Amino acid sequence: MKIGILSRNKNLYSTRRLIEAAEERGHEVHVLDVLRCYMNITSHRPSIHYKGEELSGFDAVIPRIGASVTFYGTAVLRQFEMMGVYPLNESVAITRSRDKLRSLQLLARKGIGLPVTGFAHSPDDIQDMMKMVGGAPSVIKLLEGTQGIGVVLAETKKAAESVIEAFMGLKTNILIQEFIKESGGTDIRCFVVGGRVVAAMKRQGAEGEFRSNIHRGGSATLVRLTPEERSTAVRAAKITGLNVCGVDILRSNHGPLVMEVNSSPGLQGIETTTEKDVAGMIISFIEKNAKPHKTRTRGTG
User: Fold this and answer.
1) Angstrom distance (rounded) from CA 187 to CA 122
2) Backbone phi and psi for residue 155, each to the nearest 5 degrees, phi listed first
3) Closest CA relative to residue 248, chosen from 142, 51, 112
4) pLDDT tens string for the chain (301 positions)?
5) 2-91 maps to which CATH number?
6) Strand ranges (DSSP E) for the chain?
7) Cα–Cα distance between 230 and 191 in angstroms, integer?
8) Rounded Cα–Cα distance for residues 97 and 90 (Å)
């Protein structure tokens, strides 16, 4: 098979592992910087060009699109879909998961456990919304934040009001969530491939840090999932429409709560912690499922 990987840096661990796993199985791999792809949007013959040449003959494409280039990256992926190339994750599903508010609303509609979450536009509604999420301490998140950036724990009501007013003054969209104290600065990353949890790890925040992201100095250990946690992760992936994703879960006194569904989860932490060949599982999934024009949305969503 001829596989394209949409990645801005072929030396990143995740990209490198996907190249290795695909080449080990005899596939031809091309890493394409998504920002250097440009498109001819024509009804009869849509095409993508890259550094002066037209791209053709691809069987599948693996999107590793960074949050900062979501808009352009999903446009390129949509073009591949229009050309009949099989996407590991569809453009519509990626867009859905990157919009934190939309993603939470979809999960809530299907009954997935979530931390109590508030969203408002006017600073006048801050006090009432704080009550709604259980008061302080509370977690304030920028909708556009990734890897723990733009996430603040407000220990007191006054601190929460100050942070919210500051964010609103910058005209940014924010979510306010209840703080799940019993999780103790840990969360669980469930790695889902093709409707199955293939690996999981527990992430612990660094000393004095409530965010458990490994990028922020957190550590990871093996974890045994409960059947409820496993089914929650699988359902969250299905609702979002992602074939491959990382589902981040908090353990609470009232069961597993989904924090986020990540459409481009890193492989380094999960492979190092679990010693599983997750990249190989992803390529194996593509081998079984990649067929021309096999997208639910056909690039139209």
Assistant:
1) 31
2) -75, -30
3) 112
4) 999 999 999 999 999 999 999 999 999 999 999 999 999 988 788 999 999 999 999 999 999 998 889 999 999 999 999 999 999 999 999 999 998 889 999 999 999 999 999 887 777 777 888 888 888 888 888 876 555 567 888 888 888 888 888 887 777 778 888 888 888 778 999 999 999 999 999 998 766 555 555 555 578 899 999 999 999 999 999 999 999 999 999 999 989 999 999 999 999 999 999 999 999 999 999 999 988 777 665 433 4
5) 3.40.50.20
6) 2-6, 28-32, 37-40, 47-50, 53-55, 60-63, 86-87, 117-118, 138-142, 151-154, 174-178, 186-193, 196-204, 219-222, 244-252, 255-262
7) 10
8) 11
Joined together, the tokens standing for residue 293 give 């024009």
Question: Domain 96-113+182-283: what homologous superfamily?
Answer: ATP-grasp fold, B domain (3.30.470.20)
State the span(s) of the chain assigned CATH 3.40.50.20.
2-91
* Residue whose entry in the numeric block shows the structure tokens 């801005």: 8
Residue carrying structure tokens 């407000």: 154
Residue 292: how many CA atoms within 13 Å on its side-chain side? Answer: 5
Give me the CATH code for the 117-179 domain, please.
3.30.1490.20
Sequence ranges of the chain with CATH classification 3.30.470.20: 96-113+182-283
* Entry pTM: 0.87
The answer to whether residues 213 and 283 touch, using CB atoms and an 8 Å cutoff, is: no
The torsion of the CA quartet 249, 250, 256, 257, rounded to 10 degrees, works out to -80
Residues present in the chain in total: 301
The span from the CA of 88 to the CA of 194, in Å, is 10
Instruction: Judge if the upstream peptide bond of residue 265 is cis by omega within 30 degrees of 0.
Output: no
Q: Give residue for tokens 């992760």.
A: 233
